[in-house]
Amino acid sequence: MELIINGERMNIPGQIKTASELLNYFQLEEKVLIVELNEAILEKSAHQDTRLSDGDRIEIVHFVGGG
């Protein structure tokens, strides 16, 4: 499946079907982040049920602390 992630076209393995599985694939499931799918912010509770489709535009923003 081809997705546009943070502005970059990427081919993702076909077994990845949901936003949650995509985050696991990139090892981001434990990070504090925001996921936007086709210009709509996804609630964290919806990650597991939100199915991805070929051509979807996804923005993943995670926060980095420092001091």
From TrEMBL:
Alphabetical list of CDD domains matching this protein: Ubl_ThiS (cd00565)
Signal peptide coordinates: none
Domain of life: Bacteria
UniProt cross-references to Pfam families, sorted A to Z: ThiS
PANTHER family: SULFUR CARRIER PROTEIN THIS
Identification of the protein by name: Thiamine biosynthesis protein ThiS
Source species: Mesobacillus selenatarsenatis
Gene that this polypeptide is encoded by: thiS
